[in-house]
């Protein structure tokens, strides 16, 4: 209940608006009474007090100078100064010249109106690929029309031909520019850019884009005179072929991965009573260690602790490697453990690795694990080993469910896009 109240108060304060309305809010609620909020009030009271003292006659000048003060007041009025200056001739010794505090206007309805900020979801790779293919088809069509126009050019009407060349050139410029934009969006917003760079290096991808831009700049620099030349058409056509080959290779690699995932038995089925066997198959699929992972036995059934499986994970190095590999397989590639100990001959290094893994599981997979690191390293506390076994089981279940959900959503999006295109 206290947490909900805390969130509501924070949301109310954040939606107050300007600083003036924030001051008005605290003045009305009295939240800052005795905490510095009375500074302005003290200043106003000090100004009022000094004026009251002058009126009361504490600082009253001697009677001999009263006529001189009245004459000075008359002189000020004749000088056409502000009428407010001469309304209080009693307090002309400087107190009335002090700046008065600005009145805080009460908040309006729009002041407390909290506007919801819309954050668009990241573009899906399947949708971007479909848009890029459509742009490639349009580019090929306009290049085909430009090639036919070169063959049937009318040499007799030079003015008509120049006008027609400019129209066709502007259309070509617009469509190819949109195609380059679609390709750039696909490259920069790709879910797995490493897969693209394995097919074609990033340097070559950038060089291809720059080459297309140079071709378009040459066409524009001569004001489309002579139309689009054959060398320029061939250059843009070669770029579209390169992009097509890249997309085809990527789709072939995705089909192989999909076929490989269908062979994994741990993805589906009823595993009631065999939870550790399922998670062991899941870990063994992504384990890159040269030694095979020992079978995962339940610590309740086995009286001797630690089990060979827990002993293999004791130093934390294998858990960190599994975490990094699974992060790379997921769509949200962040919170990888980059700094860890590979030499685990010292106990404190094993403890650091386990703590790194526990914290990364909390930040990346949003699962809080209860691991007694020191008890695991001592090796003589059965309760610590059972808690470690339960933490690994909880982590495996959470990671497997997230990755499986991402694969299912990706497959569903691909089928939807193919259905729309067909």
SS-based structural class?
mainly alpha
SSE ordering: HHHHHHHHHHHHHHH
The portion of residues assigned to helices is 55-70%
Number of domains: 3
Poorly predicted sequence stretches spanning 5 or more consecutive residues: 1-7, 51-92, 94-98
Helix count from the secondary structure assignment? 15
End-to-end Cα distance: 53 Å
Q: At the first level of CATH, what is the class of the largest domain?
A: Mainly Alpha
Query: Total strand count, please?
Result: 0
- Give the overall average pLDDT: 78
Could you please say which CATH topology of the largest domain applies here?
A: Actin-binding Protein, T-fimbrin, domain 1
Gyration radius, rounded = 38 Å
Biggest β-sheet strands, sense, barrel: none
CATH superfamily of the largest domain: Calponin-like domain
Shape designation: extended
DSSP strand (E) fraction? under 5%
Gross CATH architecture of the largest domain: Orthogonal Bundle
Write the layout of secondary structure elements.
Layout: H1 2-14, H2 19-29, H3 39-56, H4 66-78, H5 125-151, H6 158-188, H7 193-199, H8 202-221, H9 230-262, H10 275-286, H11 308-312, H12 317-329, H13 347-364, H14 373-378, H15 382-421
């Amino acid at each position: 209940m206290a947490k909900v109240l805390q969130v509501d108060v924070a949301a109310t304060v954040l939606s107050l608006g300007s600083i003036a309305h924030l001051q008005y809010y605290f003045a009305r609620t009295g939240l800052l009474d005795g905490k510095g909020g009375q500074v302005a009030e003290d200043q106003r009271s000090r100004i009022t007090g000094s004026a009251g003292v002058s009126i009361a006659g504490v600082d009253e000048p001697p009677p001999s100078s009263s006529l001189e003060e009245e004459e000075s007041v008359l002189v000020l009025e004749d000088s056409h100064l502000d009428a407010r200056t001469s309304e209080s001739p009693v307090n002309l010794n400087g107190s009335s010249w002090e700046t008065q505090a600005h009145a805080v206007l009460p908040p309006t309805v729009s002041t407390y109106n909290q506007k919801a900020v819309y954050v668009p979801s990241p573009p899906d790779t399947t949708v971007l690929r479909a848009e890029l293919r459509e742009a490639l088809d349009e580019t090929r069509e306009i290049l085909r029309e430009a090639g036919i126009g070169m063959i049937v050019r009318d040499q007799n009407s030079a003015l008509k031909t120049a006008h027609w060349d400019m129209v066709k050139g502007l259309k070509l410029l617009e469509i190819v520019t949109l195609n380059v934009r679609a390709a750039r969006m696909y490259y920069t917003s790709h879910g797995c850019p490493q897969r693209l760079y394995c097919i074609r290096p990033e340097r070559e991808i950038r060089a291809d884009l720059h080459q297309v831009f140079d071709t378009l700049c040459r066409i524009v620099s001569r004001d489309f005179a002579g139309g689009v030349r054959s060398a320029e058409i061939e250059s843009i056509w070669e770029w579209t072929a390169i992009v097509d080959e890249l997309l085809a290779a990527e789709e072939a690699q995705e089909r192989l991965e999909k076929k490989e995932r269908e062979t994994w038995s741990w993805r589906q089925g009823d595993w009631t009573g065999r939870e550790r066997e399922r998670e062991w198959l899941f870990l063994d699929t992504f384990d890159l260690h040269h030694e095979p992972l020992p079978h995962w036995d339940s610590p309740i059934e086995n009286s001797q602790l630690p089990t060979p499986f827990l002993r293999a994970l004791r130093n934390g190095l294998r858990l960190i490697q599994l975490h990094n590999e699974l992060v790379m397989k997921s769509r949200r590639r962040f919170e990888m453990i980059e700094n860890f100990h590979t030499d685990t001959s010292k106990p404190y290094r094993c403890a650091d690795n386990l703590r790194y893994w526990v914290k990364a599981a909390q930040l990346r997979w949003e699962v809080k694990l209860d691991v007694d690191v020191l008890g695991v390293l001592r090796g003589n506390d059965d309760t610590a080993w059972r808690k470690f076994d339960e933490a690994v089981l909880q982590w495996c279940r959470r990671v497997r469910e997230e990755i499986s959900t991402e694969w299912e959503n990706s497959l569903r999006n691909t089928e939807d896009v193919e259905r729309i295109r067909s």
